[in-house]
Amino acid sequence: MLKRRNFYVCVCMICFLLTGFTFKGEEKDAKVKRVIDGDTFVIENGTSKGEKVRLIGVDAPETRRTARKEIGYYGQEAKQYLTGMLNGKSVKLVFDVGKRDRYGRLLAYVYIGKKFVNRDLVEQGYAVSYTLAPNVQYADLFVKLERQARQEKRGLWK
């Protein structure tokens, strides 16, 4: 009976991990290949394309027009800021509960040394807070920082 229970527990854990969920706080080191826009970049993963990473909890203005979205005010500035911060550098990706979004991108909180990139973008006015469950670890912080950036007219709030 105990063996059967352990088997079911293992099967459940494997299914949980395969659905794109992870253990909160899991980390991965990576090298940034290129920046796509103010909240998305590509890391090296041994393939020519690399792997896309989307910053959790923030949303930067769009840099290009798509079928659903128009180019956003301050989008190019946000992309340039993130490019200057990340391009070619090694970063630490920290995952929350959901590891991937519906487009297959990795979802992460990103650090360069002790600098918390997601926080910096909102604090400097290059992005707004964007909370999407289950990844809500810093939601309150990002809302507070956005409010401060608006009041102090930083970045896109100028």
TrEMBL record:
InterPro entries: SNase_OB-fold_sf (IPR035437), Staphylococal_nuclease_OB-fold (IPR016071), Thermonucl_AS (IPR002071)
Domain TNase-like: 26-158
A Pfam family recorded for this sequence: SNase
One Gene Ontology molecular-function label: endonuclease activity
Transmembrane segments: 6-23
Coiled-coil region: none
Protein name: Thermonuclease family protein
UniProtKB keywords: Endonuclease, Hydrolase, Membrane, Nuclease, Transmembrane, Transmembrane helix
Lineage of origin: Bacteria, Pseudomonadati, Bacteroidota, Sphingobacteriia, Sphingobacteriales
Keyword Membrane tagged: yes
PROSITE patterns on file: TNASE_2, TNASE_3
